[in-house]
Here is the input.
Amino acid sequence: MSWGLESAAGPWTWTVVVLLAAAYYYHASRSPARRGLLILRGLAAAALALALLRPTVLSRESRLAKPRLLILLDAGHSMKGKAPGGVTRFAQATAWLKKNRAAITARAAVSVTLVSDRARPLGGLAKLDAAAPEGTAFRPDQSLRDALPPEGPPARVWLMTDGAAEGGGDLGRILAGLGAPVDMIGTGPSRRETGAAFLDLKAPDFAFLHGTIPVEASVEATGLAGREALVTLARADENAPGGWRVTGRVTRRINSDIETFPVNLSAPADTLGTARMRLVATGGGRSPIRLARRACAWSRREAGV
Here is the structure.
């Protein structure tokens, strides 16, 4: 800690103080008054000078502040996809942050924000257990604009994502709008395979007779840019060719190397009992390929009517 004096007096005030000091010196050198009286007059002149200067006593203490680090964690539905080790990409990202939490917090003041179609501040790394991916896609043009904390741009930004995003806008310009250097940290498989996978699948446990059985899914297509993906919902039927009757289909043109898209299909609930449903994705083009080959094994749903 250091101490010092500071005055907000302007140049004219200092001029008056200098003239006052010169006048006292001239008076003290020529006055026949006693020494004690001259000392009192000197103290009076000093008090007047202090009143004009209005000095302030300052104490300074140096403190080291950690730079602020903002971690933007992709919480889009593509982060539900598998990563090496059989865990989801979101779990892989949070596990890495937990493992390196001590080293990160020792060097920076960390805040975490989940980004999907919106920005959702989470807090510090200690709250990662409360985080989960959402059912919507990661849209940088909608979420990153609102991701900055109230205190302003941080010293650095980490964007942890699997690279699957939707929406328009110039990503470089959007990231530049954060006002800080941005590091991209990838999560997911180290090698990208050609094909597709169902990231999420929702179907009801029962349906009313003569109603419909809705099926919702999220599909991730990789390495299929320029092709069409066909997602088909079928119901088990002994009288149909192959034992499956198609009840709905969706065709999607794949425009990028990695793309996720939602699928909403339905089947009629026109018989009593249970119905076995199958959701399959196939790829078109000159060389048709089978997508999500194992989807049939795990996507069957029993719907009681």
